[in-house]
Amino acid sequence: MRRLLSDAIRTLAPQGQDRHGPLPLLMLTLTVVTGLIDAVSYLGLGHVFVANMTGNVVFLGFALVGAANLSVLASLVALAAFLVGALAGGRLGTRFADHRGNLLKTATAVQTVLIAVTVAAAAVTDGRVTTGVQYTLIVFLGLGMGLQNAVARRLGVPDLTTTVLTLTLTGLAADSTPAGGAAPRPGRRILSVLAMFLGAFIGAQLVLHGHLVLTLSLALVLLALTSVITHRLAAGNPTWTKSPS
Question: How far is residue 106's CA from residue 92's CA, in Å, rounded to a whole number?
C-alpha cells in the first residue's frame, strides 16, 4: 500500500509536458468537496443525495412505496437540479472546449457562488434546517454537483470523476494483477477513494455535531481555492490546458 501511494503521489505531481498537469490534484480536491456535500445532503437534508444520482434514483423508488425517512419530492428536486447543473456544465464544456484551464476555473467559480448561497441560507437560521432551507440547499447543491460532474467528464482525466466511485472501484479490482490485468493507475484510483472518504468523514463529523454552516463553508473555501489556483496555473496556456482528445 505504501508503494502504491508513493507512486500515486509521483504521478499526480505535474511534470514537464504531462498532458494532465495539475488537474489530478485539483480534481482530488473536488472529490473531497463531494464527500462534504453528500454528508450535508444525506445527514442534514432528509436522506437525499445531491451528487450521487444512482443513490437518489434508488431512494426515489423506495420512497414511492412508502419507505420511512425518504421523500419523493426531495429526490425529484435533487434529480431536477442535478440535471440542470449538468446541462450548464455541458454548455460550459462546449464554450471552453479548447482550454481545460478556463473550463475548470469558470466552473469552480460558478460553484463557489452556488455554495455561497447555501452558506447564507443556512446561516440565516443558524444551521436549523427548516423546509425552506432544506429545499434551497437541495436545489443549489444539486446545481453545483451536476455542473461539477459534467465538467469532470469533459476534462477527461482517467479515474477522477469527482462524484462517483463505482467504476473507479471496479477498475481497481477488475484491472488488477490478480485479475490478469495491467493494473493501470492503481495509486490514483486509491487516492480518489480516499479523497471521497476524507470529505465524507469530515463532513459527517461536522454535520452530526451541529456544524452545518461550517461544513458548507469548508466546501466553499475549497472550491474558491481551486478556481484561483487553476486561474494561476493555466496562465500562458500550458500543455495540460489542451483537450486530451
Answer: 8
Predicted TM-score (pTM) of this structure: 0.89
Helices (H), 16-160: 23-44, 53-64, 72-95, 100-124, 131-155
Quote helix, strand, coil % in the chain, to nearest 5. 75, 0, 25
CB 197 within 8 A of CB 36: no
220 and 111 in contact (C-beta within 8 Å)? Answer: no
DSSP 96: T
Residue 11 Cα distances to 15, 187, 198, 240, angstroms: 8, 8, 20, 14
Contact by Cβ (8 Å): 192, 168: yes
* pLDDT score for 59: 94
Q: Please state, in angstroms and rounded to a whole number, the distance separating the CA atoms of residues 127 and 121.
A: 9
pLDDT tens digit sequence for 119-135: 999 999 999 999 999 99
How much is the CA Rg of the chain, to the nearest whole Å?
18
Within 10 Å of residue 210's Cβ, how many Cβ atoms?
12
Grid cell of 182 as nine digits: 495491467
The candidate with the shortest Cα–Cα distance to 121, out of 52, 228, 213, is: 213
**Residue 190 and residue 8 in contact, taking contact as beta carbons nearer than 8 Å:** yes
Helix axes 2-12, 186-208, angle to 10 degrees: 100
Across all residues in the chain, what is the average pLDDT? 89
Helix (H, G, I), strand (E, B) or coil at 202: helix
- Cα–chain center distance at 53: 12
